[in-house]
Amino acid sequence: MYWLIVILIIVVVVLTVLFWASANIGSNVYLKTICRAKTQQKVVALSFDDAPNAEMTPRVLDVLKAHNVKAMFCLIGQEAERNPELVRRIVEEGHIVANHTYNHSGRFTISGPEQVRAQLERCNDVIYSLIGRKPRIFRPPFGVTNPTIGKVVRGMNFDTIGWTIRSLDTIYGDRVEAMCERVVRKLHPGAIILLHDRCANADRAVAMLIERIQEQGYEIMPLQEMLNMNGYED
Ligand SMILES: [Zn+2]
Prior knowledge:
The protein is an alpha/beta fold. Helix content is 47%, strand content 15%. The protein has one domain: TIM Barrel, CATH 3.20.20. Strands 2, 3, 4, 7, 8 and 9 form a six-stranded parallel beta sheet that branches. Strands 1-6-5 form a three-stranded parallel beta sheet, with no helix packed on it. Helix 2 links the parallel strand 2 and strand 3. The longest helix is centred in the first third of the chain and has 22 residues.
């Protein structure tokens, strides 16, 4: 009986560690992921997942332009296909785009290697057809990695970019001020901030967030510049 309990405890601990490694974007267990810049300077970068969104992305782009801030947009291939002009606008206005899979399926994290590869290739092909360049940055849906995703992504030579600050904007909803406070509380040199341009209040949220970040003496840098990388295959 005693040994049974010990074995049970070990199994629970191992499963907890494996789950943590899979769900924690910064764990680096299955896939080397860059979550911040190694710097002491007060610089941060913004990233938007699940882009583009027909209604909100243009408004977010207007806000970014008004503040002269550049960001990273992590594109879902299917949404890029539906909004080709928006993808071109994102790039024309100096933002960088990344691969966030073709359809952001909940099954991505339980897919086999062929399906994972197809999701990544198809997304990159769509983006290439629209802007003539293939992203080299991959942002895992839900921030989840596993051995299969790790192997395929490494084989395809992607740089995986995570974050150190989740804004939780999808949860805060119209409580934009509280969301900004959360981010400001967590600010640190070299931070990458995770946002979603599809949120109903994204334009208002981004405008307020930019101002709050700058008030703290931080500069918002283009992500690829902060990390000193190209971001595309060419
Ligand atoms: Zn996503």
